Amino acid sequence: MKIFVDTASIKEIEDLAQWGIIEGATTNPTLLSEEGGDPVKVIKRICEILKGPVSAEVVSQDCDGMVREARELARIDEHVVVKIPMTVEGLKAVKILSRDGIKTNVTLIFQPVQALLAAKAGATYVSPFVGRLDDIGHTGLEVVGQILQIYENYGFGTQVIVASVRHPLHVLDAALMGAHIATIPPKVIRQIVNHPLTDIGIDKFLKDWEKLKGK
Ligand code: G3P
User: Fold this and answer.
1) Under 8 Å CB-to-CB from 187, ≥6 apart: which residues?
2) Fold for the domain defined by 2-214
């Protein structure tokens, strides 16, 4: 499973890129607004750091506007993937963009059959939002499992990005299900690394080593 970072924070991405585990990033209007500055420059910088797929979202609601914005976003860098919301206008835009060779990430997916339609329209990626489904009493990961099953049944090449990840268990379940990618907020990536038994183990090794040196 590939790991993308779900942030537009240049500082975080510069740091996490050094870990050697991040293969792409996903942004959205909320995350870019949190980062501030010129969004074009921010997206370009993320692409330069990661040299992998970086999702940037359109804000138009109509197909023509989405396609126009998508072409502008795609011009920023070869690594840009255009995020398109899962709507009728979005599907029309994905069809046009996929024909033009522009990569798309159909976002705000909340049920498996939406992902089926997105794949049929030519989406490169789909993003089911697991955390937001959990928030309203559904099991977000079930949707991921069903999307993976549908894609396998019919041989779709569309890749599933597990999004709206809120905690390490989401990442574990995504990996067990064979999701292609999980896009994870920096805070959750750090949570995955930390384990109290690791810290206790390091502490004990260091203390024992000091004892040896004292002998
Ligand atoms: O990748 C989608 C993500 O940014 C949404 O996460 O936590 O706002 O539901 P959240």
Assistant:
1) none
2) TIM Barrel (3.20.20)
